[in-house]
Amino acid sequence: QVQLVESGGGSVQAGGSLRLSCAASGYSVMFNRLGCMGWFRQAPGEEREPVVSFYPYGGSAVYADAVKRRFTISAVNSKSTLYLQMDDLNPEDTALYYCAARRPSFAPCGLNADFDYFGQGTQVTVSS
Fold it and tell me: What is the pLDDT of residue 74?
């Protein structure tokens, strides 16, 4: 049973920063070169959207245009933990942020990847 537990959300003013964490357990997605992880977000009244997709084994990532150059994904494989550093936040970033993982697959790990597991989410609120 794969479990993803997010933390690190909160309330900040525009221009501020937050770092989200995702602790993964139950499956060695992060140690598999075919694994794929990512972050999604869902604002009130909106559909869930991908923020970034990431190969934890190789370290390459694909970011949504809205967060490029402001958000950075990273991982500490030995801790099975995924991070999302979010800088220069703006009110449009307000959303529930979810960590996601996919079973090992030869399919590309892009923003349109089909993820199999999601966490419960952590709320990020940015005020102007």
Answer: 92
